[in-house]
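User: My collaborator sent over this chain with a note saying "see what the structure looks like." That's all I know about it. Can you take a look?
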Amino acid sequence: MDGAGLRGLLLQVLEENAALRAEVAALREENRRLRGLKGPPRLKPSKPSGMEKATEAKPRGRGRRGPKNARLTVDEVRILRPEVPPGSRFKGYEDFVVQDLVVEPRVIRYRRERWLTPQGATVVAPLPPGVAGHFGPELRRFVLAQYHQGQSTVERTTTLLKDIGIDISKRQVLRLLTAGQEGFRAEDRAVLRAGLATAAWISVDDTGARHADRNATCTRIGDHRFTAFTTTPAKSRLNFLELLAGAEPAYVINAAALAYMRARQLPGPLIARLADHPQRLFPDKAAWTAHLDALAIPARARHPDPARIASEGALWGGLVARGFENTVILSDDAGQFALGRHALCWVHAERLVYKLDTFCARQARAKEAVRAGIWDLYRELKAYRRDPVPAAAALRERFDRLVATRTGFATLDRLLARMQANRAELLIALERPEVPLHTNDAENDLRAVVTRRKLSGGTRSDAGRTCRDTFLGLSKTCAKLGIRFWDYLGARLHVPGAPAVPSLGRLIHQAAPA
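Assistant: Without extra context I'll predict from the sequence alone. Here is the result:
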């Protein structure tokens, strides 16, 4: 038998095998049905508990929306005339507004005058602002907006530009996305500095990322005015402190730094060496590392690492010296974020109860009773944040009664004990009503990073990683400040006719709480 005959026979056997498998499965299902047995469980994906939306105050009535056309500026008026029989009378106009978009390529040839001075030097007329390379500012704005805000890929963006009529390659699109973006990077760093310097609270979260074929972590820091993303190889408290310290960290040995080291069980003799040394301020990591070496404070691979704890304490001392001590850090209970005035997300705390599996009716009733108590307390805390009336003591008592409940369901009781241990972090809004009760804002911001990860996998170059973090952070910050990202890009790229956009750092300072 030749090769074609063997392939045909193999396909026939495979088809018969598949048919027999289907028949066996059907017979097993029929057997289970006749014997009154249940089939295999069908698992459904878990849905969010809905605590946040369910505890929102319902509006009493919906206001009437104004006419949509009132927000539009008419650029052109065209008069349309119908075919009418003789003797008809003109009765005015009936307006119909249409929004349209004009996308077309433009090729501009700049004829730059050249002059020869009496001294023999050649003077050439400069290019207009915003022209860098052979692609104009409008095209650069479109590429940046399409990729970062539109969450497109390099391949799709290149194909779209070619279909429009732009002669461009994938490598040129990559260059537009990554080359010459130092100004945007500097403004992104200024946004983080301004936000941390003026924030009453920040919410933090992180998600997985890939860079240079290695696992990494993208950390999000922000509040209601700004967002900043940074992708780093590590996921630790030291890494988080370095992000808070910024590009120019200061290592300071002060009371806050020493208290941090004592709380993390750094040996007393090592603390004494740091405290007794006359030098207390170190401007960068190199100077601090040299100081640790001079004091013979070793770095160990195992926990606890004296050098790491000392570095964390010195960075925390530098942040406290800048006035960061009173800033509340709101997180989902990840250990690396537990610093200073720490607050916890109620949605994450309730989610542990919501996802708890029950195995009998008694456990199910206990779980629902606890969830109802959490929802009621959460609703009251939200009302307290809107109007901080003198009810803090009553809310603390309600919380204590709730977490002191013992249901006999061991896992549920452990979760209540965990909430009791986190009492101060969960009830911080009673002291600081401006602090949110959840980290939904941080999770919503991180969805942009997750979407980019699903579309493009990871980054290869350091420039690509930096630009991704920079532009995603700037787009989120613009949205929070009420600025169109399209207008922001136009202002920074000197697009003719683009509206002026002030420095985002200055706008963040102006929006700081009084």
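A starting point for your reply to your collaborator: The longest strand covers residues 201-211.
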